[in-house]
Amino acid sequence: MAEQTPADPSRPEPQSSTPTTPVATPQPAPVQITSTPPPRKAKQDRAPEEDPGIWRMNRRNLLAITGWLAFLSFIVASTIGALRFMFPRVLFEPPTKFKAGFPQDYVIGEVSDKYKEAHRVWIIRDNAGFYSLIAICTHLGCTPRWLPSDNKFKCPCHGSGYYKSGINFEGPAPRPLERAYIGLTDDGEIQVDTSVTFRYELGQWGKPGSFLTYTG
Length: 216
Known about the structure:
Largest sheet: 7 strands, antiparallel
Structural class: alpha+beta
CATH topology of the domain at 97-213: Rieske Iron-sulfur Protein
Radius of gyration: 54 Å
Number of strands: 11
Mean pLDDT: 82
CATH class of the domain at 97-213: Mainly Beta
CATH architecture of the domain at 97-213: 3-layer Sandwich
Oligomer: single chain
Helix content: 10-25%
Number of helices: 2
């Protein structure tokens, strides 16, 4: 049996004369891009086939419509206010000074409410002459009524009562009724001026104009 000679590491190994075939490197497969349809919503969340677009009523559209309506209402109100501002407000009030007829038109002891609605005054005649009471309760400004059967003025609001002279005697009224100026014009008619008043508690019922002396 032949002995094997150990290989000498210093000697180069003989090269094979057979050519080596290059190994092909595998290429990655190209990425396939596919259009995947988005998931469909549940049937109750999908718009109907005949979708009316923005006219479809949902929460967002409802809020939008409400906002537009509020905005348009503001514009209309502002326009009307601007137009109204261009026309001054005129308050038509009856004149404070007026003629109330001739003295002989009144009966002694009578309380005339002829001018109560238009001027809120009563004209009273007694044996000495005339005085005019303003028909405004001194409690809260209501209009009292003259009650001939009780011979007194009675306020329907809180029950204040006044004698024919205008002095308060019952209810919450704190003071008597006020008198208005009364006098005679040059042609002999009674004239009343509600802008001039006289108060009993201030001692003004004795001043000129608070009473019209007449004995004719």
